[in-house]
Every structure is written in C-alpha cells, then in structure tokens.
Specification:
Elements: H1 2-28, H2 33-53, H3 67-88, H4 94-101, H5 104-115, H6 122-142, H7 151-170, H8 179-191, H9 201-207, H10 210-237, H11 240-245, H12 250-262, H13 268-299
Helix pairs in contact: 1-4, 1-10, 1-12, 2-3, 2-8, 2-10, 3-7, 3-8, 4-12, 5-7, 6-13, 8-10
Length: 300
C-alpha cells in the first residue's frame, strides 16, 4: 500500500513540476494570468462535473456541516495558491517559482507550532533559520541580487503558505470523502473567484498561439484535475510525512522542464538558495520525526 501511495505521489510531483513551465509558455503565447486561470479551471471543473454525472459513480454531495469548510479549503488551496503562482510567474522564471513553492514545508512547520502548539527541538529551529536563509537567497536571486522583493515574489511566497495550509487541513476530510469527490468540491469552490476574468477569455483564446493553447489545456487536465486527485489518493493511502518528502523533487522537475521547454535557467543565487531551502526542509522533518519517536518511546 505504501509503495502504491509513493507511486501516486511521484507521478503527482512530476506533473506539478512541469506546470511552472506550462504557465510561462501560456504567457509567451498570449494568455494573461486571469484568462489562463479561467481556462485552466473551467477545463478541470468540467472534467469533474462529467465524472460526477457519469452513471454508476455514486458521487456524493458534501454534508451540510462541511460545505463552508470545504469552500474554505477551495479558497486557500485553489484561489489563493493558483492566483499567487500564476501572477507570480509573470516576471519570475519557472524554476525559481518552483523553488519558492518547494519551501512550503517550512511554513507548514511554523503553522504547526503556532496553530497546533507543536513543540520544535533546537535542531528544528536551526532548520527553520537555515530555511529562511535559503528562501531569502532564492528571492534576492530572482530580483537580480538586489535586496528588494517584488510583488510577484511575494505572490509566490503567499502561494507557498497557502498550499501548506491546504495540505494540513485537507487530510481529515479524506477520511470522509473519496479523493475525487473532495478534489472536485475544492476545485469548484475555488474556481468561482476566477470567473471575474471570463469576459476576456474569448479574444485571448482567439489570438493565442497553438503552443499557448496546448499549454493551457494541459494545465487544466493534468496538473489541475489528474494530479490533485493522485495527490489526495496518495495522502489517503500513505503516511503524510513520507509522501510530502517527495515534494523535494518538484523544483528539480520544474528547473529541468523549463530548461528543455523554454530555455530558462534560474539565477545562480536562486539555485544556491533552493539547495539550502531543500536541505533545511529535510533537517526540519528529520528533527520532527526524531522528536515524535522519542515521545512514543517515553509514553510506553
């Protein structure tokens, strides 16, 4: 079961890693951030609606008590996250964006300390400090080594925080809802704010290049619909810490795909910062796992 969950998670990371380059390719071919979000999530929402209406799927409605909580998950995990990533990539390279998003586990640990009163060891705190140094290097590298932070980089940081919140609060609902059901509800709720750009879609799609249209369709089908379901299945069937550790590879995929597809390569300072951030995430999770083992052993 664990091996199967890891397989789903690895497939998800490969698909998500490619999405950063696809977003940039859509921009180069004529899409704006708003119209790309509309097209991407209309496609994903339609796929989920088709599944929900398919005979024999027994697609269940959410409990009335869960509706607003699931809508909140959609706002955090879809609206905020994808707004931040999409608008952030208007000026930030795909590989650099991938590295910033990969820092999400650092924020997850901070949220666990602040919101869940989890204790962090000295090693864990050292890991957090190292992580923020890595994030700072990534950001300054994205800004051409100037000690300023653009709004696009801030959008990506907000997206990293949003996805960390989403992963933390998604897990309990997977005990009640099937992965496809929960992902569909979250996508439908989270897509609603994007419809504000709907009037601009027709002229943009009409004038966009074939590559940009292909990239937008790919984003709607694979990173948005299929990958989110695969990730939910992986979280449902596997151990969350082990599954989440595969996210370390996402920025590597993002960098390689952006280089092959777009000829983009992140600034050296950002690459160094990305390496530092990934090491810090590993250190934080190792310290957290060690502390949990000690707690279990002491309770026996």
């Amino acid at each position: 079961m664990e091996r199967k969950a890891l397989g789903y998670a690895l497939a998800t990371v490969l698909i998500w890693g490619s999405s950063f380059a696809a977003i940039r390719a859509s921009f180069e071919g004529g899409f704006t951030p708003g119209t790309l979000l509309v097209v991407r999530f209309l496609i994903a929402s339609a796929l989920f609606a088709l599944y929900a209406c398919w005979p024999g799927t027994s697609f269940r409605l959410p409990a009335r008590s869960d509706i607003w909580r699931i809508a909140g998950l959609g706002f955090i995990g879809i609206t905020v996250y994808h707004f931040g990533v999409t608008y952030g990539e208007t000026t930030v390279s795909a590989g650099t964006a991938g590295m910033i998003i990969a820092s999400a586990p650092i924020f997850t640990m901070i949220l666990a300390v602040v919101l869940l009163n989890e204790r962090l060891s000295r090693t864990g705190w050292i890991g957090l400090v190292i992580g923020f140094i890595g994030i700072a290097l990534i950001m300054f590298g994205a800004e051409g080594a100037s000690f300023t932070v653009s709004k696009e980089v801030m959008y990506l940081l907000i997206a990293a925080i949003a996805t960390s919140l989403f992963f933390v609060y998604q897990k309990p609902y997977l005990k009640t809802y099937r992965p496809l059901e929960l992902t569909a509800y979250v996508t439908w709720f989270g897509s609603i704010p994007f419809l504000v750009a709907l009037p601009d879609v027709v002229p943009v799609v009409r004038d966009a290049t074939a590559e940009a249209l292909g990239a937008a369709i790919y984003l709607g089908i694979f990173p948005t619909a299929i990958a989110y379901v695969l990730w939910a299945v992986a979280l449902q069937e596997g151990e969350a810490g082990l599954i989440s550790s595969l996210l370390y590879f996402e920025p590597v995929v993002a960098i390689v795909v952006a280089w092959l597809w777009l000829g983009e390569w992140p600034p050296t300072l950002s690459l160094i910062g990305g390496g530092v951030a990934i090491v810090s995430v590993g250190l934080i999770q190792w310290a957290h796992a060690r502390d949990r083992r000690k707690l279990v052993e002491s309770s026996r």
